[in-house]
Amino acid sequence: MPATELLLDITLGVLLLILAGAALHGTRLYTGIISFIAFGLLLALVWARLGAPDLALAEAAIGAGLTGVLLLSALGRHADEPAQPGSAVRTLATLLLGVLVLILLLRAVLPLAQGPQPLPALVNSQLEASGVSHPVTAVLLNFRAWDTLLELLVLLLAVLGVRQLQPAGRPRPGVWPLLQAWSRILAPLSVIIGGYLLWRGSHAPGGAFQAGALLAAGVVMLRLAGLLPLLRWENGLLRLLVLVGVALFLTVAAAGAWFGAGWLNYPAHWSGALIVLIEVAATLSIAASLSLLVVGERQELGR
After folding, report:
1. Which of 46, 291, 83 is CA-nearest to residue 190?
2. Which of 38, 81, 116, 120 gets the highest tally of CB atoms within 10 A of its CB?
């Protein structure tokens, strides 16, 4: 590895540790949130350096972008805490936990450097039968489709849980004209780029989670700019979009078991079409769920 690349990687690693510490031990909530957003953006660069553009896209869109907006939105409805001195005990506990996690990661990663691993070759040997040409999509939606189905279920439960916990909303502040102007430009671009990422996911980095997060970002921009009405769970179309990903996934799984192929074992001649169908439905569910989580209604049930 060239010295410049090694220096860049070391710098990224050190900056990640600094931002993680700032996010955990900031004296104010606002400082911790901004540090968390910066941490997510830097982590996206690290994933890109590791050759994992799928994870880099997901981290930038969800980890730093939408999660950052969600945290800032929550902070905006609560008074910031007064500055407090850091606790030496908490800092020491965090340091010890970090060392333990580092040891566990090293134990998991070091064996990977001891020669070629069988899993990539195994995935590539079955790639033609998966229905897609990109190994990450083949793993997520065919070889280990149960993992992706459970992720969609977790997202659905998060939406339902937030509806039970979120407090009544406050009056929305005035909207910046500049935000409205940029939203009208960027929101259509989010739809175009999201559609491209969805299409690209079958043969290159991209897919449902990245596309759904980008569509949700467009919805969040339009809502914050006052160009969209309030997103309400009572809206039948919105409910359908939230549920369609899990519902279609479960339908495909049950159909496979009913016709004898097995749960989420796709017929070879239908695998490509089924994966595309699941990806489209998952994209819509992810976009709707993340939009509700970030800028959905702020009223308690049973009000």
Report:
1. 291
2. 38
Task: Give φ, ψ of 243 to 5 degrees.
Answer: -90, -15
Residue 73 lies in a domain: no
Residue 287 lies in a domain: yes
Q: With respect to residue 195, please indicate whether it lies within any of the assigned structural domains.
A: yes
pLDDT over 60 (residue 86): no
pLDDT digits (tens, 9 = 90+) for 208-233: 888 888 888 888 888 877 788 888 88
Position 303 scores a pLDDT of: 35
Q: Mean pLDDT across the chain, nearest whole number?
A: 79
Query: In which residue are the tokens 């769970």 written?
Result: 233
- How many domains would you assign to the chain? 1
Task: Write the pLDDT tens digit of every residue in 275-298.
Answer: 889 889 999 999 998 888 887 765
Pair 279, 141: CB distance under 8 Å: yes
The reply to whether 25 falls in a domain is: no
Q: Which domain holds residue 287?
A: 131-303
